[in-house]
Amino acid sequence: MVLLTDNFSESNCIGNFQFGKLYYAKIVYPGITAYFMVKKWEVPENCDYDPGDNDLRLMDEMILLRHEMFINHPGMLKLYGFCFDRGLIGAVYEFKPFDSLFNLIPKDGFTWLQRIKAALGLASVVRYLHLG
């Protein structure tokens, strides 16, 4: 995960979630380009945290994503792997920004990463509208 994200560079950070950060990753092989999202759990600064809480959160997510109802669902992220290594807790998911709200963000004047961040913001608005 460190290699995928250029050592979790802020330039690859696409947003936050409740317990950490999300990073963009891209691997280019001759003739193939693969996009990934890396989710890194961190110790929350302003909430009660017990050692092992993030381990449990990751395992709950893995159980959900491996459930038979969701594993082949077209609207769910595809999990590639996860990591428990020297305090690093994270997961790697397939990322297909071109099959999402990403396509609604104007291309002119925006970098690729700025467009991803804008799409995440738009997704938050859509979620809010659905939840009322």
TrEMBL record:
Residues 8-132 form the Protein kinase domain. It is found in: Membrane. Transmembrane segments: none annotated. The lineage of its organism: Eukaryota, Viridiplantae, Streptophyta, Embryophyta, Tracheophyta. This is Protein kinase domain-containing protein. The keyword Signal applies. GO terms for molecular function: ATP binding; protein kinase activity. InterPro entries: Kinase-like_dom_sf (IPR011009), Prot_kinase_dom (IPR000719). SUPFAM superfamilies: Protein kinase-like (PK-like). Keywords: Glycoprotein, Membrane, Repeat, Signal. The keyword Cytoplasm does not apply. GO terms for cellular component: membrane.
